[in-house]
Amino acid sequence: MLLKCVGHYGLSYARVLKEDNEHFFKAGATVKLLQGIEALYMRVQNLDYNFLTSDTLSLFKSDVEYSHSANLDPFVTATPGANYWDQVKSKYKWENYVGVGFDAGFVYEFRPDYKKHKFDMDGEKDLWYRDHNKYKTKVSFAVNDIGGIRFKKGILSNNFTANVSYWNLKAVNVKDVQEFDQLMSDMFVPNPTPTTFKMSLPTAINLNVDQNLWKTFYINLGANICNLQPNKTARVHDYTTISLAPRFDHKWFGLTIPFTYSSFGAISGKPVAMGTMVRLGPLVVGTTNMGILLKKDIYGANFYAALKIPVPAGHPKDKDKDGISNKKDLCKEVPGVWEFMGCPDRDGDHIQDKDDKCPDTPGIKELQGCPDKDGDGITDAEDACPDDKGPLEFKGCPDRDGDKIIDKDDECPDDAGLKEFMGCPDRDGDGTPDRYDNCVDVFGPKEYKGCPDRDGDSILDKEDACPDTFGPRANKGCPWPDTDGDGVYDKDDDCVTVPGLKELKGCPPPPPMKEREKKILEKAFSSLEFATAKDIIKPKSFPSLNDLAKLVKEHKSDWTLKLSGHTDNQGDADKNMTLSEKRAKAVKAYLVKKGVPAENIIVEWFGQTVPIADNTTPEGRQKNRRVEMKVIFKEK
Fold this sequence. Notes:
Elements: E1 2-20, E2 23-45, E3 49-53, E4 56-68, H1 84-91, E5 99-110, E6 118-121, E7 124-128, E8 137-152, E9 159-168, H2 177-187, E10 190-191, E11 196-200, E12 204-214, E13 217-225, E14 241-249, E15 253-256, E16 259-262, H3 263-267, E17 272-274, E18 276-280, E19 283-287, H4 290-293, E20 304-307, H5 515-527, H6 542-554, E21 559-566, H7 573-593, E22 601-605, H8 618-624, E23 626-633
Parallel strand pairs: 21-22
Antiparallel strand pairs: 1-2, 2-4, 2-5, 3-4, 4-9, 5-8, 6-7, 8-11, 8-12, 9-10, 12-13, 13-14, 14-15, 14-16, 15-18, 16-17, 18-19, 19-20, 21-23
């Protein structure tokens, strides 16, 4: 299995459900939007095989489920001289849908000695000591990565039954996904499958039990249970592990010795491993398999180390014994009053000394104990801006740009402006303030945000290629030209230099086609047949196509042949579009091979989008499966 994921966008919510004496409950969940890049899977059931030699294989009715995302299909056709990976980047596209995933879990703590972990402080009772490990038993349970991502399936990646005899593996040379798909398609008959598949996330159950044995001694039981969907084909999963770990856990030192069972290790016959983890202050070192390190011949080992900055929790202290914790006591060295969180008020004016500009002189609360806080010569009671120095003219409020509009009412306090624009300037005087004016130095109407339109064609001069001549927006404000004067603009005129008719897009009437020529064209169209669902022309169509090639060569100086590919509406629309393209190009290739200049043939394709008959009947669908042929007379 393979699943590449760009990332996920999650919304999490968690809360404490209960914190009542002995019992503590907490739960949370996460909803995730998932975005994948690519995926593939292969699963074989009923595998029955025989190697006759080292490179000759026989498979007997083995069921294979195989698929990959559509963006692993071939999507780059190399262009000579161009960088291959640049082409990959330019044509790579997402072939998956946004998936949804979920995580959910809860934590329970049993606290039989909860009273030892509580205290009263700062007017509150029954506060928890944050530096105490409060539980005797802690249990957590979580289910992670529920959900999956749906992908569009590759064109040739399908299930099949492998039934082949004497397969010569020496002849197999597969270099990429495209060649593997083609090999499987050629070797085996694909079974019809849906056009999408859903790749499931590696859902796992995590269970953890932590038991306090005595003081700083604990034992922990943890389980990570994986592969919960063993019968699901498109999935990814990890291996199940169960760990039992005694540990000593002090503030600055810790030692853990985990014994871990792994389903992956069980495959190799070594299901249980002993590890060690040592914590010394900020340094953590350890290994998950201590047994390997004790062996004489070490073929593989693991070791990890981490540096953590510990931030130990503490409990409130009260240095000056005034009933307020040091954390909340604003005056830790001097006892104070509760009204001001432990700070003194010497003059008794109910303004604490640290906020009282005149701590020995009583004052009023509104003035913080002093008559003029901002020092602008105006008492705070009369100051409209008591925290900003300003002149008496504006009741103590500043006017930085000197436009007679005080800063708190001035939307442009650093640029002198007009009152009607809330103190903002209008340099060009067009009634649009500069901050909203897209042409600040040129007079223009308000409806165009201050920008001019001299010719009145609703295209601003700065965007108008012909600012003094009225013209349409489609031609960048310039009038459309008509070179041959036939009343058809050059943009709509297929014959720009020759006068013609509007109904013929400015071209003169074509010369009449001879009856013999019409019959050759009609016969080539009516006789054209392809192999079912392929772009291979049937041999019975060759005689009429040969006559058509000869006719086009006779008129190569004045004819262009347009080939238009079409299909019925059966099957996938994208595949039909591709089929119509290939068939039209196949006809062109045949005619070119017969000597028709390639420049005398135009190819276009429409898939199932332009039916000429009812697709609900076999006859109608037959008519819709066609390559139309039309002669375009060259301009002389």
